[in-house]
């Protein structure tokens, strides 16, 4: 018997993509979904109105909770007539807490209601599920000591190209990661036996964690505002004896960077994204691989010099501020 799963989404000023993601969940979610929790990082825009309108039109029961109630699972019912197999819990976090902080509010909320064996599926709000993806990930998660499981994540803007087979391999001496299967043709045969041994972490865009693993490892480290939080989480899990899995036929389309301007192409990455990429890299290295700090810093400096050479001065400046521990803007 597969356990139930709670789906956790995080929104920040991106209500339209969130609604599309919720619709894909409704269409493709599977019978094992017990509930969907949507945390809003104090968007201050029309996100809630868009979600509430969608829920009413789709026959999804909507429950509203503030961050104070997120520790107890208490939620006010906005409308309770549900034709869907699950309720939508909309949690206001009260501030822009970043990826880790915002998801931690949702994780606490879920843990106050969930059974110990129920899984949690962290899903980016700029993704679209495909039929059977959740059930396939759950099936893989139930095997052996698998604590976290990833999907085949495919670029939405080019649906024949892969972003990652589950996750990535991490190079601690450089403080950077390489997505497994990146840019491979979608229809190329995929072999879990050759991919899974290389997994150092599961991509946070579509990450399912088993209930006992979450209880043992704990929440995300919210000192990371953006990036490296899933590497940190997986590193802790692996050091506690959990394995990482990949469900190759669980396909998730990802719009990549729709909210904060992140991109696998460095030239297209926003300055906010650039700043936190460097800051989080240093935080992770100090925490887990302090002996590699000199080579990580040297690599950051080398990349910054390349940006200066290409006259990308704003990007080089924000990286330097992150390296020195300064705020993003003077």
UniProtKB/TrEMBL annotation:
GO molecular function: glycosyltransferase activity
InterPro entries: Glyco_trans_2-like, Nucleotide-diphossugar_trans
Domain of life: Bacteria
The keyword rRNA-binding appears for this protein: no
Keywords, in A-Z order: Glycosyltransferase, Transferase
Occurrences of domain Glycosyltransferase 2-like (ranges): 120-305
Protein's UniProt keywords contain Glycosyltransferase: yes
Pfam families: Glyco_trans_2_3 (PF13632)
PANTHER family linked to this entry: GALACTOFURANOSYLTRANSFERASE GLFT2, RHAMNOSYLTRANSFERASE WBBL
Family: Belongs to the glycosyltransferase 2 family.
Protein's name in the database: Glycosyltransferase family 2 protein
């Amino acid at each position: 018997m597969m356990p139930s799963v709670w789906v956790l989404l995080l929104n920040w000023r991106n209500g339209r993509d969130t609604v599309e993601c919720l619709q894909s969940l409704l269409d493709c979610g599977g019978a094992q979904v017990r509930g969907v929790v949507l945390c809003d990082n104090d968007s201050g825009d029309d996100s809630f109105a868009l979600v509430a309108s969608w829920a009413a039109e789709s026959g999804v029961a909507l429950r509203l909770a503030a961050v104070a109630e997120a520790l107890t699972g208490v939620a006010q019912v906005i409308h309770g007539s549900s034709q869907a197999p699950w309720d939508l819990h909309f949690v206001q976090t009260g501030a822009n807490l970043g990826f880790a902080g915002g998801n931690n509010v949702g994780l606490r909320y879920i843990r106050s209601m969930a059974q110990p064996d129920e899984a949690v599926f962290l899903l980016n709000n700029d993704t679209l599920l495909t039929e059977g993806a959740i059930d396939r990930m759950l099936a893989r998660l139930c095997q052996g000591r698998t604590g976290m499981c990833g999907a085949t994540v495919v670029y939405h803007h080019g649906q024949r190209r892969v972003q990652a087979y589950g996750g990535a391999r991490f190079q601690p001496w450089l403080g950077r990661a390489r997505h497994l299967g990146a840019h491979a043709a979608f229809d190329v045969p995929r072999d879990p036996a050759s991919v899974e041994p290389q997994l150092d972490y599961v991509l946070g865009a579509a990450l399912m964690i088993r209930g006992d693993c979450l209880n043992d490892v704990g929440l995300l480290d919210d000192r990371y505002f953006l990036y490296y939080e899933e590497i940190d989480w997986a590193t802790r899990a692996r050091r506690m004896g959990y394995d990482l899995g990949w469900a190759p036929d669980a396909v998730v389309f990802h719009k990549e960077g729709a909210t904060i301007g992140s991109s696998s192409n460095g030239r297209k990455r926003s300055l906010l994204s650039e700043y936190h990429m460097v800051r989080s890299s240093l935080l992770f290295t100090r925490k887990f691989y302090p002996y590699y700090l000199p080579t990580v810093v040297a690599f950051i400096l080398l990349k910054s010099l390349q940006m200066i050479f290409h006259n990308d001065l704003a990007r080089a400046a924000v990286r330097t501020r992150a390296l020195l521990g300064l705020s993003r803007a003077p």
